[in-house]
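for the writeup, i need someone to sanity check this before i put it in the appendix. the sequnce is what the collaborator sent (i think, or maybe the updated version? ugh). structure was predicted straight from it, no edits. if anything looks off just tell me and ill rerun, i have time this weekend
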Amino acid sequence: MADPPLLALAGIRYHLGDQTILDGVELGIAAGERLSLVGRNGAGKSSLLKILAGEPIADSGTRFAQPGATVATLPQEPDFTGHSSVGHYVAAALADALGPSDYRVDALLAEVKLDGGKNPAELSGGEARRAAIARALVAEPDVLLLDEPTNHLDLPTIEWLEERLSAWKGAYVLVSHDRRFLANLSRAVLWLDRGIVRRLDRGYSEFESWSTGILEREATERHKLDRLIERETEWAGKSIRARRTRNEGRLRQLNELRKQRREQIGPTGRATIEVGQAEQSGALAITARSISKRFGERTIVADFSTRIFRRDRIGLIGPNGAGKSTLLRMLIGELEPDTGSVKLGANLVPVVIDQRRAALDPEKTPWEILADRNDHLLVRGRQMHVMSYLREYLFRDEQARQPVRTLSGGERNRLLLAKALAAPSNLLVLDEPTNDLDADTLDLLQEALSDYDGTVLLVSHDREFLDRLVTSTIAMEGDGTAIEYAGGYTDYLVQRGPRETADGAMFVRKEKAVVRESAPRQRLGYKRERALAELPKQIEALQVEIAKLHQALADPDLYRRDPATFAARTARLTAAQAEVEAAESEWLELEMLREELEASSS
């Protein structure tokens, strides 16, 4: 006979207003289980973890905990109220603690590289998350309930946590947006979908095909039910019109079918993520040459060079505090380097998404965040009603007028994306955009960024997202070095090695390949120098002409009114776009040659 579960829920129901969050949830957690809890943003995952932890928030149902079983939680937002130091906060999780100097507290704080005497109010986001992890682990509970444990963690700490949990003796339930983290650690999946929990007794890597199969079967059953209702409704109508004796049993069956269909909840729709596109930028978006930055005695970036082209997707990785945000700010022109230079390409229109969600006032509503007191906002160049746009990002109508503080972490991040991506841009700067997003929304964001015609600079600790999206990775090691590698995170792991050859020659990237910086000293020559000076003017004139042609062709009546003019302007638009591409390519080749010649002579 199987051992009884450490924790079990039976018939759990929970509502928020008129929304059903949990609808008769049944589940059990056995000793040593490795479970991932997945579901859409706002599905109720955090609420379910709270009920598992013993918070009395459920409307009905029962929670069972084995006598003596210990449970520890890691909330999304740890509360340090009443704790004078990090050590005091961690020690509070121990029933038999000897105080902040307890050897168990000291050992765990050493692992997460935190000073136990530090004031919690002074912690950064990453430090606060590490302190909360230490508090959850310190008592070695029988069950760990971890809500987004990788948020704000850098890659070295995520990998440390993976190792820690791989060797964990107890059971745990993980809620995380980090798909690789879940795939590496979970052995079974709990899927919270439309208020109920389904269980898959295989790893997370099997979840997508399994859940897709369930949704497809449900769609087939709904279709069959709809057809049956159609036939029964047709019979009932004909019977009534003919004033025949009606089969009351069959009518009752029809009403029951209709009731059954009403009660069926179809799968939640997918968010719609599109990026507002500005006028096309130049072929070369950003050129950084030997840039360095120091703060006091500390070198943040030393002698870093790169060329970033239109449609490049560049990932920045490294430990917290390594200087990723500093390098990012230098690359987009917000921060001057101490040495070296940064040159921005023509017509750059940047949009920046900050991980701190500084653009979201918690007391304002999503409606106010997007449109202030207006009913419409400009989305991708056209006026759109606020409610229609919010629905694209899967917000319910009632959420439009509720304060931002009532939203889940994933919903807040979706709102931030909605605000930022409505604006036209050709350079997207994303600082930890994947925090708290569910897997479907991550897929849509990745697709939108892959299709984006501009340039993407991305700071992320999400290994799967990096591997799927970026064309190259800038790794910052925390000692001032920044090295660019072709490909995503896995490619970086394969390629990383010595940063310098035996003869001391440095390597730099050229068009995504690593090459030696060596060229004989020579001049461009008169014709090339003249072309280099004239081409930007030609490109600008062509871009003005293209904009005018677009405006003319936007007239919906032009084709009907004057087909010949419509055809001529369409042909000229195609030709002008080809001329711009050719001119940009020529200018780019000359600019790269000029910079190489300057480098060889310096």
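The two ends are 79 Å apart (CA to CA). The chain is about 40% helix and 20% strand.
thx in advance!!
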